[in-house]
Amino acid sequence: MSLKKLLKFSLSATFLLPFVVGTAMPHKVHAAPSTLSVAVHSGLETLDPITTTAYIVRTHGYLVYDTLFAMDQNFQPKPQMVDSWSVSPDQKTWTFVLRKGLKWSDGTDVTAGDCVASLERWGKRDGAGQQLFEDVVSLTAPDSKTIVMQLKAPDGLVLASLAKLSSNVPFMMPKRIAETSPYQSIKDPTGSGPYMFIMKDWVPGSKAVYKKNPYYVPRSDPSSLAAGAKIAKADEIDLIHYATEQEAAKALIYGDVQYYESPPMSVVPELEADKSIIVEPTSPPGAMGMIRFNTLIPPFNNKNVRLAVLEAIDQTAYMQAAFGTDPRWWRTCYSIFPCGTTYATDAGNWSMKMANPTAARYALKQAGYNGTPVVVLDPIDIPVLADFTDVTVKTLENIGMNVQVQKMTWDQMLVRRSNRGVQNGWNVFDTWWIADDIDTPQAIAYSGDSKTGWVGWPSDPKLEADRQAFVEATTLTQQQAIAAQVQKDVLNDASVGILGQFFEPIAFNKNVSGLTTPVQFFWGLTP
To answer: Has this prediction a pTM greater than 0.90?
Structure first.
């Protein structure tokens, strides 16, 4: 079975002015250390890319960690820390041999035992990891360079799972760190990636500093998305979170930063007016807006109440609130899997197309809603999500719900949404995922296991059975049919609603080169 996606994301090919060090001198001249400064959408508050799906932590992870396999620009899994691998004739035993010379950023050797512990920890939190480990009988390290994975049944998605893109990525960590509970955040950022995290310069929520890892040895393969040689172009990378989007925009205009991820529409005209700055949308299939319900407590523990809300969702209203009417930035998409990707489907999507508040009010009344307060989490420091939340609040109020908006920062919301109880609890929030995070039934967002799944915690044994059947399918046709059934399951349970598909802006100085999409890997950017 081919693991190749039917859709290939295009890579941005921005190759502009070369960096000029200076004029010739009669003696040897050393280039000044280079720093890439990035205005990020959120500040780094935690160092653990396994315990959270927050994209700022994913960005941190890609700088300081490496993976056994990685996806190239054709979305084929390629070896990264692995030198060679083999599969037994019955497809149940996978053997991986690590590259020589791999070291952690503290100078110690990377071992197979480190990788086993890292995979086991990842497998408890990530959707693809959870499904992979459903088939794992044993995962061992018979020597310092060899990993052996024994499966109870053939699994055609082993390499794709180990090469998982975006979040939660199966990053490798030293065993002493990887043995931390997967439900407790790590504190030690030792990794084997192209950069090291400089703990003494970290200002949580405001600034994170990275410098080249002197122990990192890149592959000899050409760079290709997350795969191949990870060549650290800048000596230092600074991720800076500004208090307002206006401050971030000014920082790019004045040259204090070279890249601004996810500038809101309010500053795009100002950035586009500056001839030294390029503003462009991320490549299709972009990202997907999502509304998430807490299925454990009233009123959304009642599936029919959730279904009523889905009948009122108007994707156009959400997209225009955040991105205006310019068709460069968004489109409607009536599939839980991003439109234009392999498993996108119309199966069972009638509720996604209704946008009918009258029908929703009637359905809400029939569901027995009695005025129970609906606590909406509003991350006011993320403009796109704040805009989405405004529409959600109006939608809920319009169909007769008793809404209580609680404003907070994104980091505060990440903590709050992990609360399963009624005390200081929550009922609904808006978010988004890049397409690659939710383009298969393996996505943690579509888990039906209330114990190991994503926040919101729906319990749906049929959904879980269908997700497992997807992993066990041997042809693309079978997988697409099962994905269609998974969509029916998810929409029938109404634990999530899709708000539309968008291609968020990025802005950067015109001298910057090395851009990638759907994930920007900052190690490859030339400042």
So the answer is: no
